[in-house]
Structures are given as C-alpha cells and as structure tokens.
Amino acid sequence: MKLLRNTVIRAGLEALYFSGAHYLLRPIFAGVGVIFMLHHVRPRRDGEFQPNHHLEVEPEFLRAMLAHLRTLDVDIVTMDEVHHRLQKRSFARRFACFTLDDGYRDNRDYALPVMREFDAPFTVYVTSDFAEGTGRLWWVSLEKAIAKTPSIEVPIGGTATRLETSTPAAKQAAFDRIHEWLRRLPGEHDLQREISALCTRHDVDESLIARDLCMSWEELKAFADDPLVTIGAHTVTHCNLARQSGETASFELTESRARIEAALQRPVQHLAYPYGDRIAAGQREFSLAKAAGFKTAVTTRPGMIFPESAGYMTALQRVSLNGNYQDARILPVLTSGAATAMWNGFRRIDTA
Description:
There is one protein chain. This protein is of the alpha/beta class. The chain has 2 domains: 2-132 and 214-343, TIM Barrel, CATH 3.20.20; 138-207, no CATH class. 45% of the residues lie in helices and 16% in strands. The protein contains 15 helices and 12 strands. The protein has helices spanning 2-19, 21-29, 59-71, 79-88, 105-117, 128-131, 138-147, 168-183, 188-201, 209-213, 217-224, 246-264, 283-291, 331-336, 338-343, and strands at residues 33-38, 40-41, 56-57, 75-76, 95-102, 122-126, 151-156, 159-164, 229-233, 270-272, 296-302, 316-320.
C-alpha cells in the first residue's frame, strides 16, 4: 500500500512539474512562507531494505533546496522570525524555515555544514529521552528486527500472524503492515510491549539505538551554541500525545521543555508534535501547547504558511523534504504550494 502511495505521489509531483501547473498555482497557494520538515540529513546508506528512508535526505538535496530558495530571493529565517512575521503581519518578503525533528547526530555532522554554506538558520526539536540515551526509537527497532529474519510473527488483532520477510520487498511489506498496526494500538505501553518482545526474539538491543543515533545533552550543548541553531521541544518520550490523558500529555510538553532548558541553559519556545498527523495532534493538543506557553508548535500536516496561519500558531503546517522524492525537478513544485494544495483539496489551512 505504501509503495502504491509513494508511486502516486511521485507521479503527481512529476505531473505538476511537466505540466507547468505549479507556475499557475504559485500565486494562489505559495502563501507567505513555508516551514520545511526534515529528520535525518546524511549520505545514502547501503542496502535494499530501508523502510525509514523517507525520513532522511542527502546533504546534496538539502543544498539544492537552499540554492533554489536563494534564486527565488526567499528569506531563510528562524522560528522566532516566523512567529514575529505572523504576529506583526509582516509579509513584504516570502520566507522559508527549516526544522528537523528528534535530535539526530547527523543534524550536526551533515546538516549544519550545509546550512553554514548559506548562513541559514534552522530549528532542531529534541526528544529529551533520546538525548538522555533512554528513549526508544521503535521504528528503527522494527527495521532492525525485520532485517535479521526470514519471517516474523506478531499478534495482529490478537491473532498470531506470521509474515514472510525473506526478500527486500517482503520485508518492506511486513514493515508497513506492522508499523500501521503498532501506530493504532491503544496506548504507548502496548506499542512498547510489542516492540520489546520483537527485539528480544530477534536479538536487537533497543537500548543502544538512541545513543547511536541521537545527540547527547553534552553534544547538544555545544551544538546549540552555534548561532544558526535553535533548539525546540519534541516531548519527553516521543509519544502519540492524542492517546495520552490530558495530564500526561501536558506533562510531556512541560517536562520536555524544562529538561532541555535545564540541560542547555537557554529558553525553549517552540514545539513539534511527535508524529504530528491527525491521529497524534488535534485541537486538544493545540490548546495544551498554547497553555504550556509555546510561541509556536508545528504539525506534520502538509501545507504552506498563509496570513491566516497567525490564528493557529500551535497548529502550523509544514512541507516534508522526503527521502523518497529527492529530485531537483520537484523543488519548484514544493515551493509553489501546488503539491500541498492538491493534497489538502485546495484548503489553505488544515487544523480540523
């Protein structure tokens, strides 16, 4: 299903490019700016089975986007400046803002050097448990477990289900099915229970993953000293906030902010919701983020920034720089707003 979805999206992006429709739609749907969403920035890994590849872009693709924005004479700004321009309705020039979720070490090693080439600021949203080395990146654990075995058994719907994983295509299909099942489990403890069981059966040490991939507090402290870097919050545990009680969700927001501020000795005013889609962040979460005092909060709902976004500072839309679509031809499509407009049925704001 995901393969079909990716094929359809790629075809849609190419259709917009080759038809030139993005030029016609740009004046209507480009908005006043865009907030780009990234996770990993690093060279392409070896291996056919890379189910989390959509979460990573190569440094050269990031460089190409930055160069493209410079040719458009777009201002590359901080999240503070996004907030300021929306609040003051200062839209004389279009802007772009780069945000990276989770706090991966490659943000320092590969993204920062590219951003320095363009003197471009960016925000990294840190999951505090990842920085402490105690968090669980379950989607990576799932990838590692499937990679190690020719078949895998999981209790989907309460029934033991064996999935064949002997080829890269079969592994991808199994990953997609299990990932969807895990995302729909009732609570975080259910998800973690199933992932831990898989890791135990297939000899994956999930406790090492955060330490291997994410910056520690000590590394983040040095990283945050760079004038181009803003650190934001991404909760304590990277949980689906919408599945939590109001008390727990509020704690995830306020405690993550407190831990980052204590460790880095700097204010944290911006938030990214984990997962950030409709089943993870809605009206309650938007209100909780506002009550917690965050100036802005970003979702993963696709969309550009429009003047009316000023009324939804804790429900801001982003445009994903997706590892599956690293083609320079789509850069003008992404910055035109045409792709997100079509995805949203030509609605400018999605906060329902």
